[in-house]
Q: What sequence folds into this?
């Protein structure tokens, strides 16, 4: 039959249901595809094929008997290596973590109960802590659009597996853009749910065995189509969601296009790409309105930095923590002398924030949430960039030595990657990523469709309508010969 791996998950499930292919054959096709591209992409970094083959055979047997099967029955899947899977504990890029005994993360349990066949884990930076995907344990994951460039992070292996045809559905996570950045850089779809919609239990970080749900962090779906995002979210969410609603009606849809933000940075080429996307939406009847400052951006960045640092700081080794504590004095001085609110001095202060400082940031967050509710009283969704630059070349130098190069040759801080993703993360809002454009070098550029808290069904419906009107995933040309 035609290349079934080019179908999205919904298409593959239809082939399974109709009997055009069996679950075991589809699994073997996925494994073979990974073998084709692994040396170039390095997306899948752990496999458990014995269990997967047994499960695929069981799904085939159930279908042959006419038994009721789940919505993902027989679909081969990989998941980000920050989720515990029985037989494949999350390493999060650290050798010491992969030798544990572990059961399934809560979201993984939902996948299995829905019939998914989980056969592999996809690469992530150490403790999911970078916008590039590499670690000493599993090496570097390369972008299928340009092998010399990053996939983004921290769900970079997930996005690469989708773009290269290895997987049709992926499970990722996001606290600092980790679902959105890789989706944009690899030309695929993702959805950052409203905070608290999907259980984080069994995700590492935090430390294995943690039972509390972390502030800011979310677990969400990645795919090659918007309808597949709906499908996977309906499986892993805590309760019923309007994710099964039909695609939105684009004509008359009120969209705020957020590009002008003095506190943020944006390469001119990315701006041009997103502006062109806005014009394409206008051409199909969308009411696209420029918006500036939907919230107090400097206050947002300062609060998000403290909230994020307070979470990430708990994952640091004691020696790292002590080192940052020693730097706190100089960092305060640097800030007093005018260092930007999201520079390295600011992050040092955030990682060592006191409870009183966290409470202050949390109060700012509450006030910003009121501001954004007023914005969504006038708009259905906001569409915004995700990153200030396109996928960039691998750069594994220490964080403080990294910069981002714009298309005009200028440089901006590496920490600028935190800016455009801050609104949805800090305020717990849903954000759906769709492919939007290409740079002059042919690299993908995505946008995030941000909605009010709890309006996941709305952003997903808008994403599906946009995909139907303007197109969606395209296979990376770099893989044409593979």
A:
């Amino acid at each position: 039959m035609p290349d079934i791996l080019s179908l999205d998950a919904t298409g593959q499930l239809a082939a399974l249901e109709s009997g055009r292919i069996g679950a075991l054959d589809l699994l073997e096709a996925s494994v073979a595809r990974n073998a084709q591209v692994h040396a170039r992409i390095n997306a899948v970094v752990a496999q458990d094929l014995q269990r997967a083959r047994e499960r695929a055979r069981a799904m085939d047997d159930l279908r042959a008997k006419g038994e009721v099967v789940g919505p993902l029955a027989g679909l081969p899947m990989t998941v980000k290596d920050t989720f515990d899977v029985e037989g494949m504990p999350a390493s999060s890029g650290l050798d010491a973590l992969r030798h544990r005994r572990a059961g399934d993360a809560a979201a993984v349990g939902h996948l299995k109960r829905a019939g998914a066949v989980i056969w592999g884990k996809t690469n992530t930076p150490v403790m999911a802590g970078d916008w590039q995907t590499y670690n000493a344990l599993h090496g570097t994951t390369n972008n299928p659009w340009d092998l010399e460039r990053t996939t983004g992070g921290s769900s970079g292996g997930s996005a690469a597996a989708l773009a290269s045809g290895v997987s049709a559905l992926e499970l990722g996570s996001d606290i600092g853009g980790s679902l959105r950045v890789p989706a944009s850089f690899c030309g695929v779809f993702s959805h950052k749910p409203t905070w608290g919609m999907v259980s984080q239990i069994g995700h590492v970080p935090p430390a294995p065995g943690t039972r509390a749900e972390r502030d800011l962090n979310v677990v969400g779906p990645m795919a090659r189509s918007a309808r597949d995002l709906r499908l996977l979210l309906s499986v892993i969410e805590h309760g019923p969601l309007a994710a099964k609603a039909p695609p939105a009606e684009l004509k008359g849809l009120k969209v705020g296009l957020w590009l002008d933000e003095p506190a943020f940075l944006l390469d001119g080429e990315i701006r041009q790409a997103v502006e062109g996307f806005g014009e394409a939406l206008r051409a199909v009847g969308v009411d696209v309105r420029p918006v500036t400052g939907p919230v107090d951006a400097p206050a947002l960045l300062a609060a998000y930095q403290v909230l994020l640092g307070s979470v990430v700081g708990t994952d640091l080794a004691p020696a790292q923590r002590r080192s940052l504590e020693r730097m706190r004095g100089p960092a305060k001085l640097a800030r007093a002398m005018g260092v930007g609110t999201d520079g390295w001095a600011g992050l040092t202060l955030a990682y060592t924030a006191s409870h009183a400082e966290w409470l202050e940031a949390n109060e700012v967050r509450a006030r910003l949430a009121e501001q954004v509710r007023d914005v969504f009283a006038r708009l259905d969704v906001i569409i915004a960039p995700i990153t200030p630059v396109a996928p960039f070349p691998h750069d594994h130098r220490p964080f403080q030595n990294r910069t981002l190069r714009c298309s005009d040759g200028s440089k901006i801080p590496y920490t600028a990657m935190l800016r455009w993703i801050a609104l949805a993360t800090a305020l717990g809002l849903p954000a759906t990523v769709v492919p939007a454009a290409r740079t002059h070098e042919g690299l993908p550029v995505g946008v995030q469709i941000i909605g009010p808290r709890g309006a996941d069904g709305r952003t997903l419906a808008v994403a599906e309508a946009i995909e139907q009107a303007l197109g969606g995933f395209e296979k990376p040309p770099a893989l044409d010969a593979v």
